[in-house]
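Schema walkthrough. Field components (list of strings):
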Amino acid sequence: MEIHTYEKVWLALSLVLIVGFIATIAYGASAGPGIDMIDDKGGTVDPATLDEHPKFGDPGIEKTGENQYDVYVVARQFVFEPGTSEPLRVPEGSTVTFHVTAADVIHGFEVVGTNANTMAIPGQVAEFTVEFDEAGEYGILCNEYCGSGHHVMEGTILVMEQSEFDSWYEQQEQQTGGEN
Amino acid sequence: MATTRSDRAFVDKFPHEAAIVKATFLVAFVALGIGAFFGLIQALHRTNVLRVIESADYYTMLTGHGVLLAIVFTIFFLCGVFHWAVARSLNRPAESRLFSWAWVGLMTTGTVLTTVAILGGLVPNLGMSADVLFTFYAPLQAHPLFYIGLAMFIVGTWLAGADWFLSYRAWRANNSGERIPLQTFMVLTTMIMWYVSTIGVAVSVVFFLIPWSLGLIESVNPLLTRTLFWYFGHPIVYFWLMPAYLMWYTVLPKLAGGRLFSDPLARVVFLLFLLLSTPVGIHHQYLDPGIAEGFKFIAMTNTMFLLLPSLLTAFTVVASMEHGARQRGGKGYVRWLGALPWRDPAFTGMALAGAMFAAGGFSGMINAGMNINYLIHNTLWVPGHFHLTVGTAVALTMMAGSYWLVPQVTGTKLYSRPIGLLQVIMWFVGMVFMSNAMHRAGLAGIPRRTAEPQYQNFEFLTPIGSIFELRVQIALGGTLLFLSVVLFLFNILLTSLGDESDRPVDAALPEPLSGPEGSPRILDNLAMWTGIAALLVILAYTLPLAGIIQNGGGLFGGGLPVPATLSAGLDFVVVTVSSAFNTLLGVIA
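Field assembly_structure (string):
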């Protein structure tokens, strides 16, 4: 088969480009910056009995170590719990591992203007870790069509100063403790 | 046909095939008109320029827009082009007229049922709706008619493919030593890809969604039906694209005044699409929990290699155009561009579509990059991307190609070339406005598929320009695109109503510069390529599907997570089910 010289050069350059793309992604996704991929490490959950689940039954934030927190979020038509009726509060300078699932249909969980973004699928738990460097407020929105009220599904993340967060967290703990 | 045409037109030589092509084009263009109108309403609604519908009805319109344009318009048009190309390149009519009409009828019936289910959502108290968008992710549920219509449509396309394979088999009986004519080769490889990939959506719809929407089963596994959708949902992208490629390879060089650069490389390109189109669907699911990172990485690598056939196509198409320009007296390194027939709407439309495809290809590379994807996933960037690819590379090529193809099946001359030229340029300009603004809005985090991105608690920020300016561009672009469709439909309608012409269009297609003679015969071994394609699919999908079924509560979801002690026994079941599935794949492919 006769292939024109220019075409051979073009073919070679194309392959270099493709391999280059793959290399940058391999670097970005695993080595180097190590962007954490959403995968199957979050495990599964039964969407039918979500209310009885030890974590998703009462979703929210939980301290797991020095500056380390776990946050459980349930997405349902058309709210984030927590996030919508009350802001999702996290302390400044913390490392937060999110566990996000959906109670009814597939939703999205996107922290606006950042790459913290995941699908929330009934039965599956999306797990990813975010570092909150600065105090401030972020928007959360649902970016997967979830029904006729999809466009009102939003929430906020409030990154609080450590001391402010601590007193809020302590108060929460006491309330929960009192209930038990 | 009372006229005596000097050069026998397609309609005289193959009147029955021309009638089929006309029928498929008619359905395609009706769908184009309705779908484009919905698009206009959406563009004006979500930018808050003009709101004539409730925000809840936006999703009915959006479902209609997606289904009517991305499935009905594109695939009916594809069927017309392929039916024309097979009859033309094999130089023989279809084996059975009745069979051809049967698939046209089945596809049309399916389309009507699905459209009725969707539009039912606009009528309150009807109790029928299908506001599930083009992707119909369960557990969002549509009326059963939506899924049943879709299944009929898909089966119709399978029969259409069988029609073309039957023509090929009959031709082969009389031409045992010959190479497969290029256009038929393109049709057959595309259809094999389609058979392999539609198995996913067929399994999802027939075994899960139809029984579930009828209440026969209680629940579905949402990640499973979603994964089966994308098993089909990425190859459909190439199903849209292949008729455009067929025209870029075999028609565009002629319109440019030259010949195709290389027949064998065109074959290689179509084979690469056959092999690589399906084992990549998971790249739509980079952000899905429940799928291991390794499987996402494999899908990403395959996706990047899919760039290769498109880069080869860019070379061949530009080289063929340059050859044409030089035949027309063009000189210089770039000055030859001026010698191209820019007044011909068929040529200009296809050339502009190709140029926009290059831009769409690069924004697609961002989508494909599994880590960068996090920034733009499900934002307006994504529709910005695919309005360049399916919305321009494909749709504009189909409209431009119509200016050359429709006269061949009607026997009438194109009503107006200047209106055609204005139409294709308007599409290009409208898309420049709309698509660049959508890409940039996506970078600011504005989501796609949302009626009303006017949130209470935060504002979107854009590094350059303003959100207001982006909205104006989207509304303006959407309006230009809709007007372009109106001009197109008007031009085609008047063309079909015109008088019979002696020479409706110069339909002769010249031989390529390098013919198929010197190329390896193995390129034409369709059975072998089918086997390799099926193998790649099995490798890419067996483990992810098994994992989704095992961990996601079984085939039908809803169940409790499987305790670790039970998983050994379950492994056996999963392996059996998935190997049965793979055998099925092998048999059908």
